[in-house]
UniProtKB/TrEMBL annotation, chain A:
SMART domains reported in the protein's UniProt record: AAA
CDD domains assigned: ABC_PhnC_transporter
Organism field: Peribacillus glennii
Name this polypeptide is given: Phosphonate ABC transporter ATP-binding protein
Statement: the UniProt record of this protein carries the keyword Translocase: yes
A Pfam short name: ABC_tran
SUPFAM superfamilies referenced in this protein's UniProt entry, alphabetically: P-loop containing nucleoside triphosphate hydrolases (SSF52540)
Alphabetized PROSITE patterns for the sequence: ABC_TRANSPORTER_1, ABC_TRANSPORTER_2
Superkingdom to which the source organism belongs: Bacteria
Domain ABC transporter span(s) in chain numbering: 4-245
Keywords carried by this UniProt record: ATP-binding, Cell membrane, Membrane, Nucleotide-binding, Phosphonate transport, Translocase, Transport
From TrEMBL, chain B:
Annotated localization: Cell membrane
Similarity field: Belongs to the binding-protein-dependent transport system permease family.
UniProt keyword annotation of Transport present: yes
Pfam entry (one): BPD_transp_1
Protein name per Swiss-Prot or TrEMBL: ABC transporter permease subunit
Length: 249, 266
């Protein structure tokens, strides 16, 4: 039922406490927005959830199994996919290979090498690019694409990878508002179609309310509130950000 | 103590610059700038050399010889660069350490493979040529390996550095998508360094033409050998013919590498 369960999670960088005793669960199919001021620990939390940094203390169960027990990258890649700002693509490769990189977990070395010359699973890549509206740019060099297009290529890669949970760290931070809404709309739609779970950090409360079913607010590494979107009031939000000003003084 | 040393550190660079400058000036004084440093018959020779420049020997035999020697020089350079690239690829990738997951293994491997690269490039190609000529005689293999080994050391070092300087986000994303280290090499590191590596290799290829020509001074055939023969006969017009061929090769490679680079811009 719960795909992600965390209990008493903490993480410290030197003397700086980035995450302190966080506990919450995420149900399959939920869309969770992580909001909160800069330095609240959103990226740190997402990195822990992705398994790319280990927590100092606490328990993190992914689909009922402690994250440390996912020894195999491929097994983890089936569960969790990550999307960040558009810098996580390889600019020198054509879009199709960036998309097919989502298959690397399943492919062996020789198949992945062959694919650079004769694309394997081309149909899967084409389908994914079609769904993000970039079929005609399949063979374009990724570096020549706009920021929004690159972010859609990254989404196509996630479609090919097809993990159960998608973690997104400010995926629209460097896009203009129209492009950002495009990407958010597309991503939440795809997640709903694939019955995936989505956790995304965002700076915009407005987008969080518009596209997500649940909002978790972090402040100084702690949960400030964790509510269904419809229960969130102005007071909650002014609280979150006014406290930020207090703590900065 | 650290606070005391801090300003020293910021001045380190200027201190070093001053030291190097002083060493340079001192070296100027240690040369005896006397008249015996200059060749007595220098003027007549200079005139002859300039005459050769204006009227290079374009007789069919010399031109044919120049074409043949150019061919030898280019072949040595190309084969030498192939050897160099193979060495660079293997040792550069291993020396970058990106294939090793354990920290300890990575550090040791980087030390070993970068050490090997440093050793083979510390020895100049001419020295390698003399060594190989001593061991296997005046064979083309001597020229090819004499070129390939030190150039492999240089290219391998550059490749390892470029791989280490790649932005980390794309690699992390590949890892997150389930890619193994070898797959990260294929889909991340190598495409990310490709354009720079190709343009650096082309530049080195140009250098290898010069090296290949120079190396033939030890008797391995090619443009350098012909230049040496003509020089010892004081036939400056022939020397210039061979030099023009050498320049033409370098210019052609430069043009080729420019067009390659244009196609490869990121
Ligand atoms: N690798 C690290 N080394 C040291 N400190 C770190 C590291 N990563 C994060 N921190 C610190 O941990 C705290 C939380 O950082 P984090 O990046 O998670 O915040 P964030 O909520 O994502 O902020 P933003 O909205 O600006 O992205 C910050 O104070 C940051 O300085
Ligand atoms: Mg962040």
């Amino acid at each position: 039922m719960h795909i992600v369960e965390i209990n008493n999670l903490s993480k410290q960088f030197g003397r700086k406490i980035a995450i302190s005793s966080l506990s919450f669960d995420i149900k399959k199919g939920e869309t969770v927005a992580l909001i909160g001021p800069s330095g609240a620990g959103k990226s740190t939390l997402l990195n822990i959830l992705a398994g790319s940094i280990p927590p100092d203390t606490g328990i993190y169960l992914l689909d009922g199994k402690p994250i440390q027990q996912y020894k195999n990258r491929r097994e983890l890649a089936n569960k969790i996919g990550v999307i960040r700002q558009q810098f996580d693509l390889v600019p020198a490769l054509p879009a199709i290979h960036n998309v097919l990189a989502g298959r690397l977990g399943e492919w062996g070395f020789f198949k992945s090498m062959l694919s650079l010359f004769v694309p394997q699973d081309k149909q899967a890549a084409a389908n994914a690019l079609q769904r993000v509206g970039l079929l005609d740019k399949m063979h374009d060099q990724t570096s020549r694409m706009s920021g929004g297009e690159q972010q859609r290529v990254a989404m196509a890669r996630l479609l090919v990878q097809n993990p159960e949970v998608i973690l997104a760290d400010e995926p629209v931070a460097s896009l203009d508002p129209a492009r950002a809404e495009d990407i958010l709309e597309m991503l939440t739609k795809l997640v709903a179609e694939e019955k995936q779970t989505l956790v995304m950090s965002l700076h915009s409360v407005e987008y969080a309310k518009k596209y997500f079913s649940r909002i978790v607010a972090l402040r100084d590494g702690e949960i400030f509130f964790d509510l269904p979107t419809e229960d969130i009031t102005k007071e909650h939000l002014t609280g979150l950000y006014s406290l930020k000003e207090l703590s900065q003084e | 103590m650290k606070e005391l040393l801090a300003p020293l550190k910021t001045h380190n660079r200027s201190v070093l610059t001053l030291l190097l400058l002083a060493a340079f000036i001192w070296s100027l004084f240690s040369v005896t700038w006397s008249r015996d440093l200059v060749h007595a018959g220098g003027w007549t020779t200079t005139v002859q050399i300039f005459e050769g420049l204006i009227k290079p020997d374009l007789s069919p035999e010399i031109v044919a010889l120049a074409i043949e020697s150019s061919w030898v020089t280019v072949v040595y350079a190309v084969t030498g660069m192939t050897v160099a690239l193979i060495i660079a690829f293997i040792f550069g990738i291993l020396g970058s350490g990106v294939l090793f997951s354990s920290h300890a293994v990575r550090v040791i491997a980087m030390g070993i493979f970068r050490g090997i690269l440093a050793t083979i490039r510390a020895i100049h190609e001419l020295v390698w040529a003399l060594l190989f000529v001593a061991v296997i005689g005046l064979s083309p293999y001597a020229a090819v390996f004499a070129l390939g080994i030190p150039y492999g050391g240089i290219l391998g070092r550059i490749l390892a550095d470029m791989i280490n300087d790649v932005p980390k986000e794309p690699i992390q994303a590949l890892r997150a998508a389930g890619a193994s280290r070898l797959q990260c090499l294929l889909y991340g590191y190598l495409p990310l360094v490709r354009a720079n590596m190709i343009s650096y290799t082309m530049y080195r290829f140009e250098c290898s033409i010069r090296s290949s020509a120079i190396m033939s001074f030890v008797g391995l055939g090619g443009l350098g050998y012909q230049i040496q023969l003509s020089l010892s006969d004081l036939n400056y017009d022939e020397v210039w013919t061979f030099l023009f061929f050498l320049i033409a090769i370098v210019v052609l490679i430069d043009a080729w590498s420019n067009s390659l680079r244009k196609r490869l811009v990121l």
